[in-house]
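Final report, closing paragraph on structural work. Over the funding period we assembled a curated collection of sequence-structure pairs, and we close with a single example.
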Amino acid sequence: MKIPAKPDIRPDNPNFSSGPCSKRPGWSLTALEDALVGRSHRAKKPLARIREVISLSRKVLGVPENFRVAIVPASDTGAIEMAMWSLLGQRGVDFLTWENFGEQWVIDGETQLKPLDYRIIRASYGKLPDLSQVDPKRDCVFVWNGTTSGVRVPNGDWISSEREGLTICDATSGVLAHEMPWEKLDVVTYSWQKALGGEAGFGMLLLGPRATERLENFTPPWPVPKIFRIAKGQKIIEGVFRGATINTVSMLAIEDVLDALRWVEKIGGGDGMIARATANFLVLDEWVAKTTWVDYLARDPATRSRSSVCLRLTEDWFQALADDERWAIVDEITTILDREGAAYDIATHRAAAPGLRIWSGGTVEASDLVKLLPWLDWAWSEICSTYAP
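Its predicted structure, as stored:
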């Protein structure tokens, strides 16, 4: 192995974490100077800011006018749980799962939502389940982009246009990095902290007309906690979709996500963000193709994420180690990069195999990824000098 020299140029922004993700280029605390702190979120001016978040979110994502859009508590987790607890139970449901977060929604189906006719269609990390097994007569809960595996559904072609069930899509690391086929999706959820680089704690719930019809004609067989309640007596609580949030929102977080949304609008909206994520992915893809010590966790190129790029370490000596030993080495790599100020927080999720995960969504600059790559090669050579046979 040729030993690379230690790089002397660092990324201008070394934040490559997959959540919370990097702020938009040029962000500083001055973006929050006009935040309406100390005000009631139900007062006229703060409510107008909240409604602007909803309207700008609809605009930059290209959400159809017949979708309802709401800000909800507890990030994407709160949004997807709200959808499941409020909408499931009328018919059977297929849970698709191939990574950690899909597995979390399975837990609700198995242990919390009772009685529920459910099936689990599962694949291991790095693969997609057999999408042809999905029954269009049943509801379907799935993630668009598996943040912890770097595996995404390639498109919406597998979803029937004649479906009877609802599609409930956790798209938190999918929106603004991958195209969303809105006509195939009945519920979409995401959080500000991913593609937008916003603050944590708040999620977005998008309901299509078929989901609205379900709410207006069905009462779940289980009690729905107040924090998840978007309908009462088969009537939608419309205020939730007009800025009257279920719980108190942070006006600092509102100002921050408005700043992100306005930036997205300036760079071309959702199309601009997808273009940036695609360009970022291509930087990494070119490097992976010529690098012998890493490969994608996602084996099929059509399913590789453009936002949460998950990499496995391929050297035989590394793969031969016990799991805890491999994690120790990953921790050492990330410690080296952290110490050098070259990259922060790029270890894979602990539910996945030991490896690296690099966020390449639209708030990341391609130039910073270019500067990162020599540091990865150098850090690996430092590890090899200590551990490789």
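The chain has two domains: 32-265, 268-387. The mean pLDDT is 97. We thank the funder for supporting this effort.
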